[in-house]
Amino acid sequence: MSGTTQQVQRWPGEQLGLPEQGQGSLASWRARVTGLVLDWAISMLVAWAIFGVGALRGQDWRAFTILGVFFVQSTLLTALTGSSAGQWIVRIGVTRVDCQPLGFLRAVARQFMLCLVIPALVIGPDRRGLHDLACGSVVVSRR
């Protein structure tokens, strides 16, 4: 056995310096998934309002309008307010690990990787997907 000891993490986010619960603690899976579903539903409504029913059933370029609206709304709102529309509703937000605002370039990169789906499905420590690990971000509770 080596002479090193491993630090046991008592709660998710402890190693990042996040509190166990309350404002600034790691967002729950329920809140994260609910926020994502709400963002997608809002994007569907906006795409339908702008591009018509073809956005929902189209086989041409309009089939990608929901994803485009999702990318634009979530990127801009995350960069400007720290939360997408769905995240704001469930009172969670995205911040850098050092508690600074995400900024525009990190928001673009994070949302692009989220739209690719796979990076978001590969989960690392502290409930952070590859998109969060790559951008130095974390999803926290705002309650």
Secondary structure topology:
Elements: H1 29-51, H2 54-57, H3 65-81, H4 85-89, E1 92-96, H5 104-115, H6 118-121, H7 130-135, E2 137-141
Antiparallel strand pairs: 1-2
Describe it:
- The protein has one domain.
- It has 7 helices and 2 strands.
- A two-stranded antiparallel ribbon has the order 1-2.
- The N and C termini lie far apart (43 Å).
Task: Describe, in short, the structure shown.
It is built from 7 helices and 2 strands. The chain has helices at 29-51, 54-57, 65-81, 85-89, 104-115, 118-121, 130-135; strands at residues 92-96, 137-141.
**How many structural domains does the protein architecture include?**
1
Outline, from the CA principal axes? elongated
Instruction: Note the main sheet.
Output: 2 strands, antiparallel
Instruction: Please give the number of β-strands.
Output: 2
Structural class: mainly alpha
End-to-end Cα distance: 43 Å
| Average pLDDT figure | 91
Radius of gyration: 17 Å
Q: Which range best describes the helical content: under 10%, 10-25%, 25-40%, 40-55%, 55-70% or over 70%?
A: 40-55%
Number of helices: 7
Range of strand content = 5-15%
Sheet with most strands: strand arrangement: 1-2
* Uncertain residue segments: none
- The ordered string of helix (H) and strand (E) elements is HHHHEHHHE
